[in-house]
Structure formats: C-alpha cells, structure tokens
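Fold these two proteins, one after the other.
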Amino acid sequence: MARAKIRIQSGVNQLEPAALLSLLRAVSQDRERLVVRCEGKAVFLRTAEVDWVEADANYVRIHTRQRSYNIREKISTFERSLSEHKFIRIHRSVIVNLDAVAEIQNCGNGEHVVILRNGRELPLGRTYRERLDSLIGSPS
C-alpha cells in the first residue's frame, strides 16, 4: 500500500491519481468488514469485532463479543479474506484475532493454549506455534 501511494503521488501511473487512491481505499476497507448472511438478512461485521473463528465441517463459525455466526465456507477460504497482520491461524480449525489474545500458556509436554481477553481458551497447534511467535516477537 505504501509503495502504491508513493507511485500515485509521483504521477507515474496512467490512471488518474484520485481514481487509484479510491481503488486502494476500497481494497483496504474490504478487509475491515465482513458481510455475514444469517436468518434471512445480511449482517455487517467489522473485523475488529471478531475474536476468533472456528471450522465446523463445511461451515465457519465466527465468534464476536456479542454472538456467533455460521457461514457456509471452508476455513481456508475464509482465512484468505482476513488481514494476515491481524488474524492468525493457531490450529487447523481455529483462527484468532491477535487483538483478542491476552496470553499464551505453556501446558507442558510442548502443548500450549491461547487465552483470549474474554477468558476463552483455544488450542495452539504445534505446527502453528512458530508463526505465532514470529508475529508477536517472542522466543520459541
């Protein structure tokens, strides 16, 4: 995004700078909200409201502070729609919002759990531990 803005401001692009800036804003805003269809209506969720997401067969259950929503989508597909700087997969069936994480506890035998600010404990898969450590800057 930063490089694109620099190119726009330098006038190197063929499109009008205002048009390119509006496209960039639209792309960045798309990751800031989700549209969830449930109970015959479309619910608009800000991604900041999402605490965690879990796989449930061919569905994804989105957990917010107020309630949960089910959508028919695979977790791998849903993961691609989220910001990789705000959300991380911590288990084959769990994605967590990094802003919702309070702590990571060692349970012994190489097992860890991620504890959210609301007290919910989520499993941290061994294969996902290294990426989480690199994002939060903690030693392995």
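Now the second one:
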Amino acid sequence: MSTDDRTLPRCSGITVGGTRCERVVSYEGELCYSHDPTKAEERKATASKAGKLSRKSNPIEEVVGLRARLGEILNDVLEGELSTARGQSPRPSSVSP
C-alpha cells in the first residue's frame, strides 16, 4: 500500500471478525459496498446470480475434459488416423472422426 492510498477515505464498517473494514469508500458516504445497508438488496441479487452460475458447470472439470480430448486428437494425428488439417478444425458434435 502506498502512502497515497492511506489518505483515501476508509469504510467505517465492522467486519465479522470485529475489526474495522479497511476498504476504500469509492462513493459518497462512510461505508463500502459490502457494508452499505442501502446496497443489501443489490448484494443479495448478485450473490444469487453468482450461486446459480457456479452450479452450471465446473471449470476444472471442463479443463480436464478439454485436455483429455486434445490428447485424443494428438494421438490420432500422430498415429495417422486423423489428418493435421482435420485435427485443427472443430468437430461437429453429431459427426464422429
């Protein structure tokens, strides 16, 4: 934190741990977004959307799946079962290699 940051207005809210919030207040008032009671409904709606989005898919599982598929494509190209041109183009889901 630079010395310039220390002169910015800080939230006067109290955290769950009982300490003063250290967030910078970015708009008029004494409370940050997380402690401002007038933003409670907005926070609730945002949290609800975030919770629904996180249940749609698991990014880690998607990466693992993509890696496995890329490995299959690489093996097929190396074994001559798939041309490099075909290995570079996306495969429609209804067509098998």
